[in-house]
Backbone:
């Protein structure tokens, strides 16, 4: 039972990693929900019996979780850079829409 619950978590982490590669929100959300359920079931396991196989599966699960976390961090960084670039473009566009006290649009030099 212990190993089965841990293998379910491992499979869920793998599916999350696969869904992160696709960058589509629906499969990512589904994989997160599935992983959450698998972890909840794993927490419900009462007594753990130590074995070499169990340690091996646990090590695989931790490695897969770390890889998924790395993918999330890379995606977060890329998204942040894209948002920063869009913000800079917006500020540049809005900067050209300046008005003086009389309500006349100020002209900005080309390229600014």
Residues:
């Amino acid at each position: 039972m212990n190993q089965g619950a841990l293998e379910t978590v491992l499979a869920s982490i793998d599916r999350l990693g696969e869904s992160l590669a696709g960058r589509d929100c629906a499969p990512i959300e589904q994989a997160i929900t599935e992983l959450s359920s698998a972890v909840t079931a794993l927490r419900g396991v009462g007594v753990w019996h130590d074995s070499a196989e169990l340690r091996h599966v646990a090590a695989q699960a931790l490695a897969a979780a770390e890889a998924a976390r790395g993918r999330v961090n890379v995606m977060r960084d890329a998204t942040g850079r894209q948002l920063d670039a869009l913000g800079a473009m917006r500020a540049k566009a809005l900067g050209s829409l300046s008005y003086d006290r009389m309500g006349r649009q100020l002209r900005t030099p080309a390229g600014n």
